[in-house]
Amino acid sequence: MNKNWVLSQEAFDALLDWLDPDREQAGIKYEQIRLRLIKIFTGRGCSDAEDLADETINRVTTRLEEIEKEFSGDRTRYFFGVANKVYLEYLRRKPPQLPPWPPSDSERIELEYRCLERCIEQLSDDNRELLLQYYGVEGGAKIEHRKELAKKNGIGPNALRIRAFRIRLGLQKCVEKCINL
Amino acid sequence: MNLNVDRDDMKKYLLGTLDADRKSQLEERILSEPDVYEELLLTEEELIDQYVAGGLSGVEQQQFETNFLTTSERQQHLQFARHLKRYVNSHAVLVALEEPSSVAHEYEVPAATGRSFFPGARLTRRPMLGVSVAVVAFAVILFLCWHVRKGAEHVPNTSGSVAAVVPLTPGSTRSSGATVTRVQVPPKGSDVKLELEIANTSYHHYQSELLRENNSLKTIGDLKVEAKGEQHVVPLTIPGELLSPGDYQVRLSGVLDSGADEFIDNYSFRVIE
């Protein structure tokens, strides 16, 4: 298959239909599969993980008619098999080198930090407090501190971990937007 | 979330050291199970935090740099973690617990000073240790008596019990009151350990002066620099009795091999009720 093949709207719609009869759910599933494929390729040390994820999806899409007839089971897992093939082909090609680390730009670093300050100020009081408390203790005392914090918030330690992570994820997105303003 | 995923496996996966079979099984689950994928994202951020805090072993640090930092996205996450650490360090609100016994439980207490001097039950099982402790305790009491009589110190000394560890970055108090590092008044009989972040570690040793509204409260010399993660800090223990609500400043100087001292920076913090 030509890896530069571009997904047409018709092919994309067929893929979505295959993923889920509900178009909204299908869209969510598509995004999830793509993001997870990127993570998997990244985990395998592929510098162009996004391209490989798209190539995997394109390859599934082009063979959709056959797959629909032959394959039954968890559709998400089908992508895994195709991803493995795409990865083997990637290994045979000369992988592009990761561009060298850009020199640290102190102005850029300061801008990112100012953006983070701004984004944290936009958090609710509860979330800001939780962020400071959760990440405020390091070293040996961290585990016990987080257990106490979870207890104080009336949730389990893992629920607290997920809550702190989601706040952090929101901040990362906010900082990205702020930098691009 | 009951994932049945070994967190250690997840960490190994991210560091590129998980064996091929388990790696393949894990990847399949990452693709098909939303919770496993979320766990991967969580572990990724925690691994980055560990690296930033200097919590990885030498081998893991090497694997992190070689196998993990392979994409610009992960490099950006690393930068974000550094910013977050900086922010949290400069906005620390260290809440002292109501029960003095649980203070050491919640906050980092250095092993050398944080333990009780009389370990109670353990001594009854180890009589020689008990005798040794009694001898040392007697010596300490004698020393304290001598010290009080001498009247050499006009300011309180550290108590040995650290209620809070407060990282401070250099720089004056910022104009916005919300951005200065805040520390709660420590419980009676306990101290606050400041960790003054420094860039220049070439001095023989360091000395500090604690000021409150330009009045010098205490000078502490012969301080040594310590590595903390990727940074260097000068630890400084402030007797809790010196701290009451108000604005404080620490002036840090470096002492050269020649004995001459050079001003390095000011560190500010606010003590709150």
Describe this structure in words.
The complex is a heterodimer of chains A (181) and B (273). The model of chain A has no long low-confidence stretch (mean pLDDT 88). Chain A is 73% helix and 0% strand. The two termini of chain A are 40 Å apart. Chain A has 181 residues and is an all-alpha fold. Chain A has helices at 9-19, 23-43, 49-62, 64-70, 75-92, 106-121, 125-135, 142-152, 157-179. With 273 residues, chain B is α/β, with parallel strands linked by helices. Helix content of chain B is 41%, strand content 26%. Chain B contains nine helices and ten strands. In chain B, strands 1-3-10-9-5-6 form a six-stranded mixed beta sheet, with no helix packed on it. Chain B has a four-stranded mixed beta sheet with strand order 2-4-8-7, with no helix packed on it. In chain B, helix 1 crosses helix 3 (34-52), helix 2 (20-32) packs across helix 3 and helix 3 packs across helix 5 (72-90). The longest helix of chain B is centred in the middle third of the chain and has 24 residues, at 127-150. Chain B is elongated and about 65 Å long. Chains A and B meet through helix 2, helix 5, helix 6, helix 7 and helix 8 of A and helix 2, helix 3, helix 5 and strand 1 of B.
**H/E series of chain B:** HHHHHEHHHHEEEEEEEEE
First CA to last CA of chain B: what distance? 39 Å
State mean pLDDT of chain A (0 to 100 scale). Answer: 88
Radius of gyration of chain B: 23 Å
Query: Could you describe the largest sheet of chain B, including whether it forms a barrel?
Result: 6 strands, mixed
Question: What is the largest interface, and how many residues per chain?
Answer: A-B, 50 and 45 residues
Report the principal-axis shape of chain B: elongated
Tally of alpha and pi helices of chain B: 9
What is the succession of H and E elements of chain A? Answer: HHHHHHHHH
Biggest beta-sheet profile of chain A: none
Structural class of chain A: mainly alpha
Estimated share of beta-strand residues of chain A: under 5%
Overall 3D form of chain A: extended
Beta content of chain B? 25-35%
